[in-house]
């Protein structure tokens, strides 16, 4: 894990030019179509925003997929374009990078809180899925409803590539876990 | 040399296995595992898309590489490569195209190939080609998860009931003969390795065999004698 990659929140500093800040705030209103309470900035999939001094030139936005096959990427790119277009930015170039590979460590704390409030357990900080060992013990996942750690995995895969399915053994509710990646 | 043939080989492996797995969608043995195998299919098709997009870009930038007689004047896209080639032009290994069979056969095929991809992508991360390296870095995380899931299923079925054990033995009989190909480089794989952008597949045989051996032991399954 390359921890030298800055968290996306730090991409905005007091010295960030006004126009770039405005674009970041527009991007913070573009949501993941599959987890509609998370913005693409919360998710950490916006990697770079480059704004030319002359706005008649191209604005460049770089995004990265959560998973190789994430079917939301095309919709996300379209929604970025649409949002910027309706706010007067006509020349927008959107490109995709694969490296460094997206990790749940780039998800903002605000994003994790929103996930939990929505009923999805946010990713634990430990990168437990990055090991291929069979049946190894995972770190306990906290139930997003009753906060119990007395939970068990139902399935390693859930409703989208980024989630696994769990069940709380105290409140008995099943829930999605946004798995570490 | 531009890595078009090599990239297509990797893309075809991912597409064909992804496609085979997707045949389970709506037909899985239980809902959770239907979703699991469909998710793995999605990851593999996603990896294939990244590879086809890169191959298409390389072809368009190097028009002499594939002649105009083959592709015409139109720009080549990922879809041209995935949908418009003849079946004999596909460069996938035979393992990935084997029929799904029963759940045991699907599981074992996934386990054999995920274990291969796991070691393969680790090496491909060091490719001198930055895009292949980036695709490897991205895909490795997904493959690691596939390896873990399929390992667990091999153990569960091998060390399960009499019937599940028998079905795993049958799957080994059916699939083992296709695993040798993974470690014998074709001329373009050999060239890719020598030029620094490809992986020495012969060198992956040892770690792969050890991985299979270790999971088979936990699954009370015996390695075929020619291993």
Distance between the termini of chain B: 35 Å
Q: State the strand order across the main sheet of chain A.
A: 4-7-6-5
Alpha-beta classification of chain B: mainly alpha
Give the oligomeric state of the chains in this entry, treating copies of one chain as homo and distinct chains as hetero. Answer: heterodimer
Q: How are helices and strands ordered from N to C of chain A?
A: HHEEHEHEEEE
Global geometry of chain A: elongated
**General form of chain B:** globular
Largest protein-protein interface:
A-B, 28 and 36 residues
Report Rg of chain A. 18 Å
> Which consecutive residue ranges of chain B, at least 5 long each, have pLDDT under 50?
none
Give the total of beta strands of chain A. 7
Q: Round the mean pLDDT of chain A to the nearest integer and report it.
A: 88
Structural class of chain A: alpha/beta
The number of helical elements of chain A comes to 4
Extract low-pLDDT stretches of chain A.
1-7
What does this molecule look like?
The complex is a heterodimer of chains A (181) and B (227). Chain A is an alpha/beta fold. Chain A is 21% helix and 18% strand. The longest helix of chain A has 14 residues, at 73-86. With 227 residues, chain B is an all-alpha fold. The longest helix of chain B has 31 residues, at 31-61. The mean pLDDT of chain B is 94. Classes of the chains: A alpha/beta (181), B mainly alpha (227).
Produce a short descriptive summary.
The complex is a heterodimer of chains A (181) and B (227). Chain A is α/β, with parallel strands linked by helices and 181 residues long.
Considering the chains and any ligands shown, give keywords for the structure:
heterodimer; A: 181 residues; alpha/beta; 3-stranded mixed β-sheet; B: 227 residues; mainly alpha; 10 helices; 67% helix
Q: Which helices and strands occur, and which strands form pairs?
A:
The complex is a heterodimer of chains A (181) and B (227).
Chain A: H1 18-27, H2 40-43, E1 46-50, E2 59-63, H3 73-86, E3 92-96, H4 109-118, E4 120-121, E5 151-155, E6 163-168, E7 174-178
Parallel strand pairs in A: 2-3, 4-7
Antiparallel strand pairs in A: 1-2, 5-6, 6-7
Chain B: H1 4-22, H2 31-61, H3 68-71, H4 78-83, H5 94-97, H6 103-124, H7 130-158, H8 162-175, H9 187-194, H10 205-218
């Amino acid at each position: 894990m390359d921890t030298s990659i800055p968290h996306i929140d730090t991409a905005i500093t007091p010295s960030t030019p006004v126009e770039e800040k405005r674009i970041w705030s527009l991007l913070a209103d573009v949501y993941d179509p599959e987890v509609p309470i998370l913005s693409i900035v919360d998710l950490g999939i916006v990697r770079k925003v480059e704004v030319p001094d002359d706005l008649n030139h191209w604005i460049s936005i770089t995004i990265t997929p959560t998973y190789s096959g994430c079917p939301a990427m095309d919709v996300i790119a379209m929604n970025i374009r649409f949002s910027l277009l309706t706010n007067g930015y006509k020349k927008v170039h959107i490109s995709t990078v694969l490296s460094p590979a997206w990790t749940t460590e780039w998800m903002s704390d605000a994003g994790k809180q929103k996930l939990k409030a929505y009923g999805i357990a946010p990713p634990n900080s430990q990168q437990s899925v990055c090991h291929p060992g069979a049946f190894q013990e995972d770190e306990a996942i906290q139930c997003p409803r009753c906060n119990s750690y007395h939970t068990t995995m139902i399935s390693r895969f859930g409703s989208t590539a980024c989630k696994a399915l769990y069940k709380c053994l105290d409140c008995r509710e099943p829930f999605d876990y946004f798995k570490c990646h | 040399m531009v890595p078009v043939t090599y990239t297509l080989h990797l893309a075809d492996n991912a597409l064909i296995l992804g496609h085979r797995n997707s045949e389970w969608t709506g037909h899985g043995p239980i809902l959770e595992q239907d979703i699991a195998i469909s998710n793995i299919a999605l990851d593999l098709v996603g990896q294939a898309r990244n590879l086809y997009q890169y191959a298409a870009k390389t072809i368009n930038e190097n028009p002499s590489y594939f002649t105009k007689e083959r592709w015409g004047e139109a720009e080549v896209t990922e879809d041209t490569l995935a949908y418009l080639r003849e079946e004999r032009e596909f460069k996938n290994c035979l393992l990935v195209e084997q029929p799904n069979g029963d759940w045991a056969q699907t599981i074992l095929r996934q386990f054999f190939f995920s274990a291969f991809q796991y070691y393969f992508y680790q090496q491909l991360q060091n490719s001198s080609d930055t895009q292949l390296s980036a695709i490897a870095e991205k895909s490795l995380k997904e493959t690691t998860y596939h390896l873990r899931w399929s390992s667990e299923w091999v153990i569960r079925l091998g060390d399960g009931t009499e019937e599940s054990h028998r079905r795993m033995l049958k799957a080994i009989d059916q699939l083992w003969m296709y695993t040798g190909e993974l470690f014998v480089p074709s001329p373009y794989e050999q060239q890719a390795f020598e030029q620094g952008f490809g992986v020495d597949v012969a060198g992956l045989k040892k770690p792969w065999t050890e991985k299979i051996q270790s999971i088979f032991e936990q699954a009370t399954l015996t390695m075929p004698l020619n291993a």
